[in-house]
Structure formats: C-alpha cells, structure tokens
C-alpha cells in the first residue's frame, strides 16, 4: 500500500507537468530567496521534469540503501517509520513542484512562505523516524560513537527526536518572518553539531567507567 502511494505521487508529478506544459513560458522561475523574490531560472523542460525525476531518484536510492546496510536486520524494527519518511520526502518534492508550476502559471503566491509549513511537517516526520530507529549504517544520526555503542545510539536518537520535534514547531514562526530564514539555516547547523558533540560526550562518559 505504501509503495503504491509513492508511485501515485511520482506519477502525479509527471501528470501535472504534462498538463501545465502548454500554459507555461519558455523560461521558468525555479528558485526564490528568503524574501520571496525569484533569484533562479531554468528552461521549461528542465523546470517541468526536475522534481519528478528527482523523486524517482530519491525513492530508488532509499529503497536500495537498506539492502546494502550490514545492519539491515535492525531496519525491520522501524520499517514502518522509514516508509513513512520516504512518503514524506516524495510528498514534499511534489508539493514544491506544484507550487513552482502554480507560480509560473501566474498565480500570485509567496512560494517561500508556503514551503515553510511543509518543512515543519518534514521535521516532525524526521523526529518520529529518529525516535524509533535502531543502529544502521545509513539511517539515523550516524557517528563513530553512536555506531560503537547501542546505549549512545539510543540516547542520541531520543534527544534528536525531541530536538527535531521542537524544530518542527519553531519552524512555523518563519511563516510570519520568512525574511529571517537565515536563522533557520543557523539553527539546523547548530542542532546537527550539538547532536554530534552529544554523542561524543556520551561515548566518552560510557568509556570512563
């Protein structure tokens, strides 16, 4: 059922591209800055089919990764959350694609502001994935220290799940202040670096005993 839903979303991406083709200019706006101003363009064909093709690539990659993982047996323990995460990634790409086409068809929308709630939903799904994840080589917060200790892995992912949930909620503030999106990037980098540091600290404490 989950695989069929993903297939449907990918097919829908191609369908809306085909239907929108006659109504679009030869050059499409494809990138916006934090103020909602267009700062990137592409050819019509590239802009129409980049996202659907990217969705296929992402889906294929995320289906292949578990088969290559030496700890793939652990993935079975959180397979449901992993499939939901894949669905969310594909849904996010489809959403961005539809917004891009709508803007280029003349609809007066603030693409940057509309993408922010979708990012919040994506972070919430990341939180759920981290909360349930077990040790694997490709999925989760993979550091030398989390991969060397099940206890450190568990503690780091429990913290990561909480922080990404807070991040999901806090991200919604940027709907009101989209021009401050640089702070969003700073927060993501800070969160990532802190989790790396935390995993190292927990491993160091565990090995002092």
Bin the helical content. Answer: 55-70%
Order of helices and strands: HEEHHHHHH
Mean pLDDT: 91
Count of alpha/pi helices: 7
Query: From the alpha-carbon coordinates, what is the Rg to the nearest angstrom?
Result: 19 Å
Number of strands: 2
Beta-strand percentage? 5-15%
Count of folded domains: 1
Shape: globular
Characterize the main sheet: 2 strands, antiparallel
Low-pLDDT residue spans: none
* Structural class category: mainly alpha
Strand order of the largest sheet: 1-2
How far apart the termini lie comes to 48 Å
Structural commentary:
The protein is mainly α and 209 residues long. The protein has one domain. It has seven helices and two strands. The chain has a two-stranded antiparallel ribbon. A hairpin with a 5-residue loop joins strand 1 (27-32) and strand 2.
What are the defining features of this structure?
single chain; 209 residues; mainly alpha; two-stranded antiparallel sheet; 69% helix; 6% strand; globular
Helix-strand layout with pairing:
Elements lengths: L1 H19 L6 E6 L5 E6 H25 L3 H4 L3 H26 L6 H22 L17 H22 L9 H26 L3
Antiparallel strand pairs: 1-2
Brief digest:
By secondary structure, the chain is mostly helical. Helix content is about 70%, strand content about 5%.
């Amino acid at each position: 059922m989950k695989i069929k839903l993903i297939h449907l979303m990918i097919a829908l991406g191609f369908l809306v591209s085909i239907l929108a083709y006659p109504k679009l200019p030869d050059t499409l706006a494809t990138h916006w800055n934090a103020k909602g101003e267009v700062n990137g363009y592409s050819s019509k064909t590239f802009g129409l089919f980049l996202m659907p093709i990217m969705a296929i690539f992402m889906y294929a990659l995320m289906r292949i990764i578990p088969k290559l993982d030496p700890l793939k047996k652990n993935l079975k323990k959180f397979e449901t959350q992993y499939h939901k995460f894949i669905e969310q990634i594909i849904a996010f790409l489809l959403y961005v694609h539809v917004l891009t086409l709508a803007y280029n068809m003349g609809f007066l929308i603030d693409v940057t502001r509309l993408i922010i709630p979708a990012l919040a939903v994506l972070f919430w799904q990341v939180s759920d994935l981290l909360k349930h994840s077990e040790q694997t080589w490709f999925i989760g917060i993979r550091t030398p220290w989390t991969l060397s200790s099940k206890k450190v892995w568990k503690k780091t992912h429990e913290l990561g799940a909480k922080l990404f949930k807070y991040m999901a909620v806090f991200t919604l503030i940027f709907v009101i202040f989209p021009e401050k999106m640089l702070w969003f990037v700073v927060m993501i980098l800070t969160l990532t670096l802190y989790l790396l540091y935390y995993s190292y600290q927990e491993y160091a404490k565990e090995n002092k005993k």
